[in-house]
Specification:
heterodimer; A: alpha/beta; 6-stranded mixed beta sheet; 3-stranded antiparallel beta sheet; 10 helices; about 30% helix; elongated; B: mainly alpha
Chain lengths: ~300, ~240
């Protein structure tokens, strides 16, 4: 059993006026794709930059591949690849030149042609970097992070500003990293990205981790949502741990009344529901899940509470 | 790979990029030579003035390849995030900064060589008499102005304002330090200011080595003090990242 690739215990980071990270704990196993998900200002980038060695932590324990990143040991930098948020590049070199230069900085780099292929830069090798489009520059970011053949790759909001096609291409690259057995820590504020890529996700807000788990599991334990349209046209919904009982009750009472149950659906809460529940500002009016959950035996009551949410 | 080998790789990349960037090549290289040609034409036949101009332009070359060039490079790379990206690689900071310094030294050496050859070929200053003094002042000047240039870069808030900061320091400096005329002919208060700054002493040293034969070693004291101040400011203020 390997030690985890990343271990974080009670990490705090205080800037002069704000506490950006307020005591978080998580581990990332080797070979795992782990996501830090949260709204802007949640503390994701601060956390990642502490792990990358760019920021000093205020307190807590941090271990990356067995090293303390705060000391920035070269042995660690040789095994880690970093895709920064908006990292710039030299302007007067070609893609191949800069990749070859970067490869030379690492003890056992990957083959440059292979990296070009992996990052989707085939055909651009002889192009000067200043002539690349935004999407191509982002691919170069990936390529530069991969060329040292790192065991662990940090991706800080890797697809922000991408068009849909470019996002899919970037996702494909991340998946191929996972296939190569790399450990990936990525931050994102896109739910679909976390759901599509991550083995596990930590949802952050205001410097804290609210929940951690596999995207599919984050909804588990939460309640099923049953939605239908009443005879008067209003939408009603209930959350329940036992949809079978509730459906039986709803359908039999509808049959007894001779009314159709239109638009009946049963849904599991998606990552999005969990995320919005956790990260929504209480002042904005999102209700506590417990208050709208009802016992399936209590029968429909009017008006059925419609949960307000920001979507 | 050893630090020296990494620094060598970085140095070769810097050289390659330099010649591909027309604006860098112009400000670092062509400008002092343009001034040499223009003022050389104006002073044609006037050997006294040419004897001042040639070492003056040599001193200006030292400043423009270091004090002018480094802030442009460092501020651009810092604000663009290239420095931050480099910091995430195994490249040691010392190897990187050493490569940048070697790059500036190379430019200064090439430019001094051109000025000396031009002085011999066109401006009647002949070959330098004292190569030791020439080398000593060239090296002292490069070290001093490279460190001051790095320190200046830390004070520049963004790339757009680089030209303003650099020229605000560079143009008055060359105007009062005897690049285009003999600094001793300037009014006393300007001469006093110039004497407190390093360039006039570098030019005196170069002038002694190239033309007059005067020993000007005492000027190294002022240059050394500025070098020490530059070293402290360059190291303490160094930033790898743009301020948010």
């Amino acid at each position: 059993m390997h030690a985890p690739a990343i271990l974080v215990r009670d990490l705090h980071k205080v800037y002069t006026s704000v506490e950006a990270v307020r005591g978080i704990d998580f581990e990332v196993a080797r070979g795992e794709v782990f996501g830090l998900l949260g709204p802007n200002g949640a503390g994701k980038t601060t956390t990642v930059e502490i792990l990358e060695g760019y920021r000093e932590r205020t307190s807590g324990i941090v271990s990356v591949l067995g090293h303390d990143p705060g000391r920035r040991p070269r042995a660690l930098r040789e095994r880690v690849g970093i895709v920064l948020q908006g990292g710039g590049m030299y302007r007067h070199v070609t893609v191949r030149e800069v990749l070859e230069h970067w490869a030379g900085l690492y003890p056992s780099p990957r083959d440059v042609d292979e990296v070009v292929e992996l990052a989707g830069l085939r055909g651009k090798e002889r192009e000067r970097t200043r002539r690349l489009s935004g999407g191509q520059l982002r691919r170069l970011d990936f390529a530069l992070a991969l060329v040292g053949d790192p065991e662990l790759i940090f991706l800080d909001e890797p697809t922000t500003g991408f068009d849909p096609a470019a996002r899919r291409a970037a996702w494909q690259t991340v998946r191929s990293l996972a296939d190569l057995g790399k450990t990936v820590l990525l931050t994102t504020h896109y739910l679909d990205e976390a759901q599509a890529l991550c083995d596990r996700v930590a949802i952050m807000k205001d410097g804290r981790i609210l929940t951690i788990g596999a995207p599919a599991e984050l909804g588990v334990g939460a309640l099923y949502r049953v939605t239908w349209r009443e005879a008067d046209g209003s939408v009603a919904s209930r959350e329940t741990a036992d949809p079978t009982g509730l459906l039986h009750q709803l359908t039999s009472s509808a049959l007894a009344r001779g009314e159709p149950l239109r638009d009946l659906s049963v849904t599991r809460p998606s990552l999005e529901d969990v995320y919005l529940d956790l990260t929504s500002d209480p002042a904005s009016g999102a209700s506590d899940p417990a208050s709208s959950a009802s016992d399936p035996t209590s029968g429909p009551s009017d008006p059925a509470p419609e949960r307000s949410r920001r979507v | 790979m050893s630090d020296v080998a990494l620094a060598w790789r970085q140095y070769r990349l810097e050289r390659k990029m330099f010649w591909r960037n027309p604006s860098a090549a112009f400000f670092n290289f062509v400008l002092p030579l343009l001034f040499l040609a223009l003022f050389g034409a104006i002073f044609a036949g006037d050997q006294d003035n040419l004897d001042v101009l040639v070492p003056g332009i040599a001193g200006m070359s030292v400043v423009s390849t270091t004090f002018v060039a480094l802030p442009y490079t460092l501020v651009f790379l810092r604000e663009e995030g290239v420095l931050k990206r480099l910091r995430g690689t195994p490249l040691p900071a010392g190897a990187y900064l050493g490569a940048l310094a070697a790059h500036a030294v190379t430019n200064a050496a090439i430019q001094l060589g051109i000025v000396i050859v031009a002085g011999r070929a066109f401006f009647g200053t002949g070959w330098p008499d004292d190569w030791l003094q020439l080398a000593a002042f060239a090296i002292a000047g490069v070290a001093c102005f490279a460190l001051l240039g790095a320190a200046l870069a830390h004070a520049i808030p963004n790339f757009e304002s680089t030209a303003a900061y650099v020229n605000a320091a560079f143009l008055p400096l060359i105007a009062i330090s005897g690049v285009f005329y003999d600094a001793d002919d300037a009014p006393a208060f300007l001469r006093d200011i110039a004497e407190a700054l390093p360039l006039v002493h570098v030019i005196d040293g170069l002038s002694g080595a190239m033309v007059t034969g005067e020993r000007a070693w005492s000027g190294l004291v002022v240059v050394g003090l500025w070098t020490a101040a530059g070293a402290v400011l360059a190291v303490r203020g160094f930033r790898w990242e743009a301020k948010k």
